[in-house]
Amino acid sequence: MSLNFKWSPFIFKPRATATATAPSTVELPEKTRNSRVLVLGGTGRVGGSTATALSNLCPHLGIVVAGRNREKGEALVAQLGANSSFAQLDINDAFSLQNALQDVDLVVHAAGPFQQSENCSVLEAAINTKTAYVDVCDDTSYSLRAKSFMNRALAAKVPAITTAGIYPGVSNVMAAELVRAAESESEDKPERLRFYYYTAGTGGAGPTILATSFLLLGEEVVAYIKGEKVKLKPYSGMLNIDFGKGIGKRDVYLLNLPEVRSAHEILGVPTVSARFGTAPFIWNWGMEAMTKLFPPEFLRDRSKVGRLVELFDPVVRAVDGISGERVSMRVDLECSSGRNTIGIFSHRRLSVSVGISTAAFALAILEGSTQPGVWFPEEPQGLAIEAREVLLKRASQGTFNFAMNK
User: How many domains does the chain have?
Assistant: First the structure.
């Protein structure tokens, strides 16, 4: 399928480079203008990128960078400026975690990986302290566990969004807008929704993304076909997908990602799947080989996967220097009338784009776009429909190709 269309409802001028232009600043409502935001995992790649993006977008926000590495944390704080501070914190220490939340208005949970986590301690602490919450979870089980806190969040009047990074996160909102446009413009019936993701190497996101990838290889893939839930082998079902300008055609493989279930249930699309691919192509071969060499039980064991990450990380870092860290998302919607619509999002640096995307969700909560409760990004209570265009415009800053198809 050609990627040369007339695009709507959103048309943005793509930027020439991811860092060529300073991000547009955001003026928050007066009551939240001087809010304090705690970024957990702030010394990691995703958390650090989020803290940087928040500081750039809203210089008046108080940013608390939290993590276990004081040296890294204080170095980042020195870059962020006077409104930032560092808190040494282990999220597994419930007492310290709850104390850290007492003095902030919003917590951003970026301390992954989320796979095989046994609890939602950060969300629980946020509810106990009546602190707004957003996480970058990319694990189906964790996201469903987070949703089980719905009644407690409602009672405490705490707004919370789970799976709110770049993918899942921005991709969910893109899907929701494609479905909304199809239903509102032609009263069409959405039939098939497909998420395609590509990242060069690890996208510069560090060992956490490598651990996440390995852990996902131990999970059966859940997809939906004509309303029926099916389970498939991880990293199977390869397709060659055109991601358009600057990315081209890439091989992508089935993975078990939370947006598949949430989009199926919330957006009412009967057939939904998600695929991911990386570069160089030998990494795809390696991922596929791992599903054959290691039993699922091994790949679901965080400690064993941690040792694998330590083994592979130096090699991956070296290759990352050559492959770069481009990231692209393509969301395809097919309707009963034969109408096909596509959304594209491409950025030169995942490590930058993931922070901007996560920050966009954090700002939406501070602006009051999220109702009390625990929500997925595509739920109107999590992100008001009228706030979607603003979020996508913010998240797409620095992209070299972003468009939503009519």
Answer: 2
